[in-house]
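Onboarding guide, step 5: your first structure request.
Type a short instruction followed by the sequence, for example:

Predict the 3D structure of this protein.
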Amino acid sequence: MAMNLRLPDATAAALQAEAERTGQSQQQIVRDAVDRRLHLPIDHEAMEAQMTDRQRAWSTLTVQPARIPYRKVRPRLRLRKGETSLELLDRDDRF
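The system replies with structure tokens like these:
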């Protein structure tokens, strides 16, 4: 059955955040919530079969999303003109 669902802004934002955190679709999260509310059995095997490796890792908290979003990093080391990073790795003063 298809239906439209209007959510308050705060609920919609929480749903989107949960979807990003777990790697599940918003639709699947709402389905699971309705099933729990109606005390319907959840078919965990079917749910596991549909999950990707990333979704499975996020849902089990094996891998967590980044706490700090990607940001441009400025290089801390500047090579002299004509010097390469390979030359830095081949130094003799390492032990």
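Each response can be followed by summary notes, for example: The chain is about 45% helix and 0% strand.
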